[in-house]
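Just wondering, does anyone understand what follows?

——
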Amino acid sequence: MKGAPPTVAYLKKIFPILAHLGATGILLEWEDVFPFASISPLAAGNAYSRSDVAAILASARSNDLEVIPLVQTFGHLEFALKHAEWSSLREDERVPTALCPSLNASRVFVERMLDEVISAHSVDGRAPKFVHIGCDEVFQLGECPRCRSSPRERLFLSHVTHVAASVRNRFGSTPIIWDDMLRHVSPEAMRESGLGNLVEPMVWVYAEDVYRFVPPGVWDKYAAIFDRVWAASAFKGAFGETLYVPNAKRHLDNNLRWLDVMSRESTKFKGGFRGLVLTGWQRYDHFAVLCELLPAAVPSLAVSLLTVTKGRFDAFLRKDLHAALSCPETGVRDPTGSGWADLSGDPFLWDRFSRCLFPGALLYRLTARLQATEREFSALVEAVHHRRGWMTPYNVRHNFSSPLRVEEVAGVEQVARLQQSVENLIRSARDSLVDILEPFAISEWIEQRLYPMVTELDSIARDAAVLKSKRTWPARPLPPLEELRRFGITVPPLPSAQPQMETKKEHRQGNGIDRLIKQLNKWSIRASTPFRCDAASTCLSSYFRVRLNLEMRFAVSFAYRLGFSAWRRKSTILAAIGTLLLLLVCLQYSSFGGRTEGKIFAVEDSSSTEELPSGGSKQRRVQFVLNQVDVAPSEKPSRLPDPPAREDLERRHAFLQQYADDK
């Protein structure tokens, strides 16, 4: 069950099919969907009610199915140990999986769970004949301070024997445990603990090669300790945590191998094999997402169950399977004759059972549509992000791509069609699951299985729209990713970009600040070391950082001429900037006297002519060279230097006027 319980009505429809195919019982792990009372926080918000549990058990009995409850008592206790109330019982405080076997509180907690579940399964005061107490995959063992001094196998055997003895003594039920933790325990330790007289092991292997995981030597060891043994195969929930339809061929091969192993090993045990359980897990553990849902796995269950019932799989089982799954005898696409038993070309059984009308058939058919949609979706994502070179994460981050190529890779119609397919799948899944799962489980499955495609397609559509809307692009190289600095990847600063040709429209509508930057760069304003302007803020900060403690009236004149030149070009933005520059110079002048810091600056100006690359025309350039002159602290002037002579200023003003007129 594990947090996604099928509806009672659906289970009532499934039980007769199981009985028809030869099942004699059901191994049922309630986990957090059991309506615990004395330890109510264990129950999920969508747990069954007491009446639901009674109805499920009554329906199973009416179909001659013996129900064996499975209660985790050692490992796989995430559903309980995740809560603060029982976090102190963890073997590892960081991992809510296994409880500490050295705590008396752990045993008390386990007994409370067993009391409630076994009581619910009892009929007329008689407890169920078998109770499965789990005990598989106890990975956290011997780690807490209380357990470190004890051998791991002793810790394990001590806890298991205590729980098993409690079940036998209090309820008279025979405990069953998973065998995996016993595979490396010595027969002497098991014999000394008395485990063989308390439990019956259930040997589980879901892969095709059973002997690879449980070799003949392990069977010999088990036969020396236990009189009877169980086997466990799988019909779903074994070959991938995120699968939505089981590979029926692999599960069939697993069950066929088990038939062979059981025939070989049965004679070693006094009582032989009790039975073979076909497991079908809802999740790999409490925190995992849902794997194959029961409706999508009914054909796989039917094929494997009928096979272990009959002891073989061949074309003669076709009629019984069609009867159990309500399949039409005409118009079926599955092969006929001996070819029907070959599942290599149809591992999910869609060709054989997609037209059948068993409970949950709508969802089963939907999985075929889902696979086709996922393939198309994966191909698109692979092309967009990896295989094609115009919508990779790099292109998206830098907003740098060819609109034509973007449309080719992720066209509007292609993405929209796929989005519509996914939306149709969501609606169909909702409708097909409404009578099978409770609403929270339906929502969870759709969010896990289908909604990720919705978000990814929406993201691709948005990115494509942004990339296709671009009309101008920057020169290379593009700015490097800042996050690369943590790998020691840095790049040197680039030289200033050369002025580019502008159209008349771009010249009229160009940014005034950009034009100011170009003007300042042309005039080659230089501080104590040369610099060029790349941004308006850089120009202004560089200009004032020099702290022109020189002829301030000349600086005022320079700012004024800059604004006047901008006004003549009919650029109100440049005129405003020039005026602002003038005001800032005045403010600098008024506050400069107290901040000379032992430095004064003298200014020289020089004009020169130089040949242009295009030919004979000449251009004057103005170059302000700031010569820094050290002044001893004792010689620091108490006032600003005297301004230059009037004729010198007039000469410079005339030069600037001529420059502005020429431009």
